[in-house]
Amino acid sequence: xxxxxxxxxxxxxxxxxxxxxxxxxxxxxxxxxxxxxxxxxxxxxxxxxxxxxxxxxxxxxxxxxxxxxxxxxxxxxxxxxxxxxxxxxxxxxxxxxxxxxxxxxxxxxxxxxxxxxxxxxxxxxxxxxxxxxxxxxxxxxxxxxxxxxxxxxxxxxxxxxxxxxxxxxxxxxxxxxxxxxxxxxxxxxxxxxxxxxxxxxxxxxxxxxxxxxxxxxxxxxxxxxxxxxxxxxxxxxxxxxxxxxxxxxxxxxxxxxxxxxxxxxxxxxxxxxxxxxxxxxxxxxxxxxxxxxxxxxxxxxxxxxxxxxxxxxxxxxxxxxxxxxxxxxxxxxxxxxxxxxxxxxxxxxxxxxxxxxxxxxxxxxxxxxxxxxxxxxxxxxxxxxxxxxxxxxxxxxxxxxxxxxxxxxxxxxxxxxxxxxxxxxxxxxxxxxxxxxxxxxxxxxxxxxxxxxxxxxxxxxxxxxxxxxxxxxxxxxxxxxxxxxxxxxxxxxxxxxxxxxxxxxxxxxxxxxxxxxxxxxxxxxxxxxxxxxxxxxxxxxxxxxxxxxxxxxxxxxxxxxxxxxxxxxxxxxxxxxxxxxxxxxxxxxxxxxxxxxxxxxxxxxxxxxxxxxxxxxxxxxxxxxxxxxxxxxxxxxxxxxxxxxxxxxxxxxxxxxxxxxxxxxxxxxxxxxxxxxxxxxxxxxxxxxxxxxxxxxxxxxxxxxxxxxxxxxxxxxxxxxxxxxxxxxxxxxxxxxxxxxxxxxxxxxxxxxxxxxxxxxxxxxxxxxxxxxxxxxxxxxxxxxxxxxxxxxxxxxxxxxxx
Length: 803
Prior knowledge:
Elements: E1 2-5, E2 10-13, E3 28-32, E4 60-70, E5 78-83, E6 90-94, E7 97-102, E8 109-112, E9 121-131, E10 147-152, E11 155-169, E12 173-184, E13 190-199, E14 205-215, E15 220-230, E16 235-236, E17 239-240, E18 243-249, E19 255-259, E20 264-267, E21 271-274, E22 277-278, E23 281-286, H1 299-311, E24 316-319, H2 326-335, E25 338-342, H3 360-375, E26 381-388, H4 396-412, E27 418-422, H5 424-427, H6 432-438, H7 442-446, H8 451-456, H9 459-470, E28 474-478, H10 483-490, E29 496-502, H11 506-514, E30 519-525, H12 573-581, E31 589-593, E32 613-614, E33 626-632, E34 637-642, E35 645-651, E36 659-665, E37 670-677, E38 680-688, E39 694-699, E40 703-705, E41 712-719, E42 732-739, E43 741-747, E44 761-763, E45 768-775, E46 779-787, E47 793-800
Parallel strand pairs: 23-24, 23-30, 24-25, 25-26, 26-27, 27-28, 28-29, 29-30, 40-47
Antiparallel strand pairs: 1-10, 2-3, 2-4, 4-9, 5-8, 5-10, 6-7, 6-9, 11-12, 12-15, 13-14, 13-18, 16-17, 18-19, 20-21, 21-22, 31-32, 31-33, 33-36, 34-35, 34-37, 37-38, 39-41, 41-45, 42-44, 42-46, 43-45, 46-47
Helix pairs in contact: 1-2, 3-4, 4-9
GO molecular function, one term: hydrolase activity, hydrolyzing O-glycosyl compounds
InterPro entries: Beta-gal/glucu_dom_sf, DUF4982, Galactose-bd-like_sf, GH, GH2_Domain-Containing, Glyco_hydro2_dom5, Glyco_hydro_2, Glyco_hydro_2_cat
Family: Belongs to the glycosyl hydrolase 2 family.
């Protein structure tokens, strides 16, 4: 079996009709390397139909084309195209013949090219995609995940045809089954030998088996082999040990899959257990975009996000609200990040004018199969979610759909629990007038921060979601922590997870999770900032503009600004607060409210927002003026010491758990926060004022391979000679790249900007910017970072050939 990456030398353009040749043919927009997001570089505008949901990007339709050389010796073989993600409504043409289609923009799918091939010559491959008003967030458009070619013998292992399952783990061994599906596409009966070899992380063979298999013409059959691995190293979030299974037919090249040996159980009394040990999910909801790369799911970008989320204290991600890429699952397997992979954001009811709801009745079964077949050998995947905030969950026929979806998942993979992210408020949306009246009226409800939770815990909601919830192994609750205790009494067999929660409420929510055996974790909205749904987590001050009646902010807002981590990968203050709440950090943390907004009224505060604060004690121009300081600490009291003198002291927990808010006057120097418990010091941390800032740049990896999944990230910062970040400094920075790499994208964390990701010049935000490099050849590359008034910074990279 040959598996050939097909990511280079694609051209893309806007689609044209059949008569375009009369006018001279279509204009090519460029030659690109996949994964690629064509929509990223379109002009943003305040009057696009999707408005802030799409980050003010327009609708887009694109044609991707490349030549496919087909050797004569492929005649008689099966040739399939694997598309890991094409947004959206993809059509695949070979030699101008329609070979396959797919509606979902996130589904991994396969197209049989064999009937349309011309052997011994170049073939024309074309993929059409389109998007617009079909998502509640920035979707991107294009071939945003890799494309591969599979060339197989007529008797072959079926695509995704290997399933590895840990049957049981004993004291001295693990029993693992390897089920391999094989098809015979010839016209004669064939007998082949299925050879399976298992190797450990060092590459040493630890088990294997060989089984003969006879297949009649056109028959697909399954070989099940039970393997016994002595003294196995178990896979878990803290010890992500992987094994490799290589399965070959006779002497053909093997199909290789990695897997982990682990057990997984869940129940309302003992919670979630991995390998018999209880695990509470410290979860992050994440969208699929990669910031300055748009929707392009390049392997290193996916891996870097998982690494940084893990470093920030998360041990689980929830795919919001679509299946994650194979590259991200591979990264989660390696790093030890647990995954709740999610299938759909809607079923039969539209959320946007042209979304998947029209396709769902036709495609749901194929898309569920694609999700589960992609995921089932990944030990990081611990749960399948069949949807997010599905309106139909509160209706009898919606419950029927839930049952069909859940049972479809189980028919393919019975080893993992099934969940659904239920927003009980949506389930009772048609009863809201009566509910509002019962809860004291609209004004009282709108002024209540717990409005979501109150509506979700009404008897109306309890009755409405009971049947659709009963089909699940774990009920996901979006913004409905009020059900945690109640459901333990009402539904003692129900397991819950906070599938979506307000980030700033983690100090209140996490103790509820720890104290509730029936609740297995919390997933914050969101772990990583994302494009679209612009400004839902921003702080709006009196006098700010806002699109009337909309949740999103006005143009040119770009990101949601509600993530623990911003789009550059930098942790925001909420991330450190969460780490302290999780019990993973003992050192207190200091954040300062931006003094330029002091005294301005906050209007329409968002439940997705944290305070408008920065971890900085550099505020030139505000000397002698009052500032508000937040200290996050697992303590009962904190003191602020400025330049050796105590200037403020106060209790922890008056406004939020593990948070103290103190007032002082800004003076440059050293600000120390000292945390006390019972009068004894339990930790301290220091912020220093930056002196004259200098332009600095560093790269996360200086040696790359010329691969389509490789990237290098350049952190551009304004720091003084002691390395202190000058958050209040600003510079317009330009990046030039020469040699064997190209600038793939550039950005800052600024949530409101008209700057473009394909530009080579950006203005720093809070003293920082980011450039992303992609290999384009082998050899050396030179990166030069410049800004007026600063010395240039030059970085050298090396790009080696693959393998």
